[in-house]
Amino acid sequence: MREIERDSGCMTPGGGEEWPENALFGKYELGKLLGCGAFAKVYHGRNIRTGQSVAIKAISKKKIIKVGLMSQIKREISIMRLLRNPHIVKLFEVLATKTKIYFVMEFVKGGELFAMVAKGRFCEDLSRRYFQQLISAVRYCHSRGVFHRDLKPENLLIDDNGDLKVSDFGLSAVKNQIRNDGLLHTLCGTPAYVAPEVLGKKGYDGAKVDIWSCGVILYVLNAGYLPFNDPNLLVMYRKIYKGEFRCPKWTSPDLTRFLSRLLDTNPETRITVDEILHDPWFKKGYKQVKFQDEYFGLKSDKDDRNVTFLNAFDIILLSSGCNLSGLFNDSDDSVNGERFVSAESPKRIIEKIEEAAKRGKITVREKEELGVELEGQNGNFVVRVQIYRLTQNLVLVEVKKRGEDVVGSYDEIWRKKLWPELRLSK
């Protein structure tokens, strides 16, 4: 990639300075191509200011919109921003132009675990070490309500210290995708690593599916080949569905027993993450990694532990001076309003809105910890107030109006009754 688009809608560093040649947004120098897929290319990059190596994933907006994958990209961004664990690849920031989205991520120099195991199987101790690190990452994800759904050696990277890092959350799911039956239903994953209940198309538990994939990975590390494999995909799926596999002769009895619990075709009796932590084979030499509750280096107050922190990408999307909201192609013309920054806590802002609404005889239709929805007198007009954390001391308050503005309802509800209560916080 010789040149990067210089879109007129985006600010250049220093208020209009020329961009360094071959630099992305004046911040990252692009290097060699590391890999490419149907919708993205991954480059080695360097932070011009710090000299730090990064991996830059360049995604074609046109291609992903064409095949309807924009919501998946949005979900991947939100998931990767949420996860901070030593065994998960870090997402530093997201940049965007009119035609491309760029993920700036931690550069993991050692490459894929797949390339290592392709040269030959691992000894049992090394297999255990990598599996312990994989489970540490998976346990962390599950505790945050994230299910990877495409765990395989190609998505596991090895760093300079020989430690494992999970990458590629493009097929991940979060708890709010779970249907009323408590299950996920999207058919996804890599054939050789997919759990039998996914093939059944009756819904599945995301955590149990990840455990199955971890079992396949452990088998591959120890054996050097897949437990379920056949040139005919239907035959391979039949083997997976029946759980037909055999451990090689060098596999220890403890590992054989452990693998049988990981690759249990019945998700109800399959070993859980908590049970894995107490398994004799797994526990040998295991050092548990403490979860980090920080979000981009910021700790939330006790009252605001669920408040969303915005990164630079979010702020760009919300800024009228550099509005890239069209990037996601989901704008709603019926939604408009205003935004302001406040030093008040989210909790206090919600309290003030509720107090003003009560005095103005305005209906509080729906209340959440991070926002409130108010109903107009005609019953059809709604004002929605949403709060985002910018820094430890500042929040962004976004006010949106939905529905028809009958006889100036927005001005009546927001401008005259609610705004006077909040303007001192601005």
From TrEMBL:
PROSITE patterns linked: NAF, PROTEIN_KINASE_ATP, PROTEIN_KINASE_DOM, PROTEIN_KINASE_ST
Binding site for ATP: K57
GO molecular function: ATP binding; protein serine/threonine kinase activity
All copies of domain NAF, residue ranges: 305-329
Ranges of residues in domain Protein kinase: 28-282
Entry EC number(s): 2.7.11.1
Enzyme class: transferase
Pfam family, one: Pkinase
Superkingdom assignment: Eukaryota
Keywords of the record: ATP-binding, Kinase, Manganese, Nucleotide-binding, Serine/threonine-protein kinase, Transferase
Catalysed reactions listed for this entry: L-seryl-[protein] + ATP = O-phospho-L-seryl-[protein] + ADP + H(+); L-threonyl-[protein] + ATP = O-phospho-L-threonyl-[protein] + ADP + H(+)
PANTHER family: CALCIUM/CALMODULIN-DEPENDENT PROTEIN KINASE KINASE-RELATED, CBL-INTERACTING SERINE_THREONINE-PROTEIN KINASE 11
Name of the molecule in the record: non-specific serine/threonine protein kinase
Organism name: Tetracentron sinense (Spur-leaf)
Phylogenetic placement of the source organism: Eukaryota, Viridiplantae, Streptophyta, Embryophyta, Tracheophyta
